[in-house]
Amino acid sequence: MTAKDSLHIALAGNPNAGKTTLFNNLTGAHQHVGNYPGVTVEKKEGICTHEGNEIRVVDLPGTYSLTAYSVEELVARDYLVNEQPDVVVNIVDASNLERNLYLSCQFLELGVPLVIALNMIDVAEKRGIRIDTEKLSEFTGVPVVPVIARSGKGVNELLKTVQKVSQTGAAPPRTLIRYGADIDEALKDLIPVLEEHKLLGSAYPASWTALKILENDEQIVAKVMLENMKVGQELVDRSETLARHLQDTIDAYPETVIADHRYGFVRSILRQGEVTRITDQDRLYASDQIDKVVTNRVVGPLLMAAILFGLYSFTFNWSGFLVDWMGMCFAFLGSLAESALPDGPIKSMIISGVIDGVGGVLGFVPIIMFMFFGIALLEDSGYLARVAFMMDRIFHFFGLHGSSVMPFIISGGIAGGCAVPGVMAVRTLRSPKERMATLLTVPFMNCGAKLPVLTLIIAAFFPAHQARYMFLATLVAWLVALLVAKLLRMTLLRGESTPFVMELPPYRVPTLKGLFIHTWERTWQYIKKAGTVILGISILLWAMMTYPGLPSDKVADFEAMRQQVVTSADKAEELLRIDQLEAEAGLRHSIAGRIGMSLEPISHFAGFDWRTNIALVGGFAAKEVIVSTLGTAYSLGEVDPEETTSLTDRLASDKHWNPVAALAFLFFIMFYSPCFVTVVAIAKEAGSWKWAFFSMGFNTVFAFSMAVGIFQLGTVLGLG
To answer: For residue 11, what are the domain limits?
Structure first.
């Protein structure tokens, strides 16, 4: 079967239902990760082969619903409608059937070719839940296949069923649920109008479009209005009439009534159809027993702190030898380029801009890899959901919603995340003020871009306590973010916190295959960024740190100095000193050097010299650039071009640096302006550049004030 004729299936389901585990089981190494156009949501695609036939598999974002409240829901729905996969495989958690079948219900409303993969059937059985898959298939009208994605059991039967459904070429009968007299009457009015004017007819069924209009789905309403403004307004007016009627009669909105009837439909299948039977009603499940300890008000936070500290200890203790090895590799490349290339700007660019710049960032790949492995372990086991649950109590105290926990974690609340998807995740918050407070504070988390910088400074000045300092940096990031959120909620964004309810998924034993895939995906994203974005910025900054070069009269002065030491007994040492002075003078005279020195009258209060200023300005583009810029700056000005010392050693031995200055630098890096891409994301989510500029200005002033306070206090106490 050719790629063009290959079967195209989409995997859809609730978060924590085992969708990604099944995707990894099907595709293995034959997968690639990107982003959906215009959003930061991950797009995963892969290929699997079954009975000689090629199957293209797409892993849709995890979602509880097809109502476009979040970017994940919007992406999943648009993909199903626009790409029209041959079959949609809905992965359902058998141990939480009622909640998971809510999404299945919406697939049935949409009328897509569907197969239900009843995952974690073994977990359900351990909980005393027995499921009659034949009856479930009979009542839903679609095939139901029990699987255990973690072990691969039932996957072969699932693929056979998928191929069979694709060969029929027909979608299942569209399930028309009774939504109550008022909703059903409104649907009878809307559906004929939609069919008559063929509004969205090629993309969506009229009954589904009508339902979305009644649910006040902004995207669907906008599409209808775009096709026919007059008819669209009539449909919206009918929807608003229904909404007012329901508010007057039962004090509820149409979307609430529709959701209630969907759940009622699911419950009627499970209970009246006797699809499920509970064999042990009073049983306390293993997950519940563990949660009695893990989410305990006292023990839970202490255990969380211990796990976090263990993550950092594991990362630094086991990745150290690989970091040293990477450092030696790049040092060898530098020495090789030094001896093989003729003197000139090309040689300088390759050594200082590429090897010392990008090499400084890539040197931290082992740390990033070990960190991501630990995070994947916590995430796949279900523990991160418990972290969110415990943090909810704290978040309410600081004026935030419990759902704000996940944007914080995504942004790097544990370590190694990214602020951009964290910013995008805040759109799930309903309260505008809670959403804005979360939006402005998630950049304070220690994202993956800050991780190499923090690791560099900690390794240079606090080498004996790396895990301890990284652990403290994480705690400080959370504390500062929450305090700033409290400040914002007490001043600019006053208002009450709204209640929060979340579902805790059961604990699972992660598979090694899944852990390795997740680790490699995130590590590869880091490597690609270093090899593309960081490489380009490093070369640009090298040029800014090299040109326009010293004036001819200054060059002549240094040449005269060399002539004076021709007869000196310490000729070699003196010539090296003059070379160093000339290199430093050239760096000072460059475009970047002038920018750095112009900021020094202010930055010296925080202990930052002009070289450090160059790196911090570059950090506005991307935080990883700080490492590459420091590598380039200290390479251009080093004493001996034959030296192979690492950037860590160079910083530790430089007279402008000391532990107090390093600590001030750490705090500034953690809290100053978000990177440019994050700023754009904030502007987009906030709907105004005003809040984006506020984030840049407020964060930078706040971070600099903290850095000045730390440096000045440390200097007065003589700790430098």
So the answer is: 7-168
